[in-house]
Design brief:
The protein is mainly beta. It contains one helix and five strands. Strands 3-4-5 form a three-stranded antiparallel β-sheet, covered by helices on one side. A two-stranded antiparallel sheet has the order 1-2.
């Protein structure tokens, strides 16, 4: 399993490691990028991680 590090954009900045095989979508926002993963939240809503990297950089890291 390959894990890719990203800067978490939450209240407590940290490094979050994402498995590219679990990513289903990437969405750009003004101040962050959301990486959506295949595991839903308890209420069935999509799970995502907000990261500080720009969407283009996220895609490069995930596909590289």
């Amino acid at each position: 399993m390959r894990l890719v590090p990203f800067e978490y954009a939450g209240h407590n900045p940290a490094i979050v490691f994402i498995n590219p095989e679990q990513v289903v979508a990437v969405r750009a926002y003004a101040n962050s990028t959301h990486i959506y993963v295949s595991a839903p939240q308890k209420d069935g809503a999509p799970s995502y991680y907000p990261v500080r990297e720009k969407a283009d950089d996220v895609i490069k890291k995930l596909t590289g």
